[in-house]
Amino acid sequence: MFRDPESFKALKELVFPRLETYPSLKIWHAGCSTGEEVYALAILLSEAGLYDRAQIYATDYNEKALASARRGIYPVDKIREYTLNYQKAGGASSLADYYRAAHADVIFKKDLKKNIVFANHNLISDASFGEMHLIVCRNVLIYFDKTLQNRVLQLFAQSLVKKGFLWLGSKEDLKFSETAGAFTILAEQDRIFQLQ
Amino acid sequence: MVKVQPFQYQAVVIGASAGGLKVLAEVCGALPKGFALPILVVQHLHPQSRYSIQLRNYCVGLQLKNKEADNRELPVPGTIYFAPPNYHLLVEADYSLALSVDEKVNMSRPSIDVLFESAAEAYGAGLIGIILSGASGDGAAGLKQIKRAGGLTIAQNPVTAEAKIMPAAAIATGAVDHVLEPREIASLLLRIVQRGEAGC
What we know:
- The complex is a heterodimer.
- Chain A has six helices and ten strands, in the order H-E-H-E-H-E-H-E-E-H-E-E-H-E-E-E.
- By secondary structure, chain A is α/β, with parallel strands linked by helices.
- In chain A, strand 1 (25-30), helix 2 (36-47) and strand 2 form a beta-alpha-beta unit.
- The two termini of chain A are 30 Å apart.
- The relative contact order of chain A is 0.19.
- Chain B has a single domain (11-194), classed as Rossmann fold (3-Layer(aba) Sandwich), CATH 3.40.50.180.
- Chain B has a seven-stranded parallel sheet with strand order 3-4-2-1-7-8-9, with helices on both faces. In chain B, strands 5-6 form a two-stranded antiparallel sheet.
- In chain B, helix 5 (165-172) links the parallel strand 8 (152-156) and strand 9 (178-180).
- The radius of gyration of chain B is 15 Å and the shape is globular.
- Chain B starts with 10 loop residues before the first strand and ends with a helix.
- Chain A binds chain B through residues 3-6, 85, 88, 139, 142-143, 145-146, 169-172, 189, and chain B through 48, 50, 70-72, 84, 86-87, 98-101.
């Protein structure tokens, strides 16, 4: 959770104020895997007062991962790391406010799930997801070859509203992609881009 | 006397953990600019250290080029590629580098075993694997794979290591060809490469 906390912080500082200008928000977390980072984003949105106006589409092609994302149950031994990351990401409260402990697990609270739709979506074969304000796709493109990367990035460009935001993983870049020209760089090291 | 094979090598992989950075700098520092092989390194770091600062400080005096590995990059000779913090570094069958955020292995990401095992598969007998100082068992299984694939295996002499566990674990597998002090590691690498250039 909160992998690359500095980048979460950058998202919060650079992108959230601009998201605030929309009355309702659509966010697509593409390739959400087992969901840790979806909940991380939900927490920061909620602390910024943006969660209630947001609809988060969290998608993955792997049903097993999605099922686990829906549950939102994680081993308790990871919580120390998550808590440290949460603090570094600029979390405003205490991570423990968002989960309850049960035996060897922690369960993230229902409140965090209410505006998240977990759905199966295959980035390689499925169509655009509609007018998003923010697309989060981190550490998914690293597994794709150049051709697929280009196709997926095009899909993202088509799925964003004008001036919408794209957040990639720290080792992923638009630089050499066919879609690079469509975006401006908002935070280079944090891989935050904005559609022109 | 250390037996040196005819030049057959295509890459060097190095695993280092606690106390390893200093040794890494010592070994790589003795290698000249344009050294004939690419060097791929997993150094266990804190997952949030934005590479660089710590590593770069150690790399300041190096004659070799050094950088954080990029996904799908083809490694070139004379350059050190570091696994980015919090990513596994792997070698693909076409020798390009790959990054992954898969589960930690040996409680580490990057994991030395992940690099070594994938590199052994890609390079076969063309690989040199080196385990330096560290307080973990990571790398032992990978070094064994390198040996099995016909590669050359080296461990830092634990006596000279700040943390002995990692080189000792590697040696305990019985798959280590040479147990050497840091400066001997560098000179062995140089001898191997020079032999190659002489066409032995």
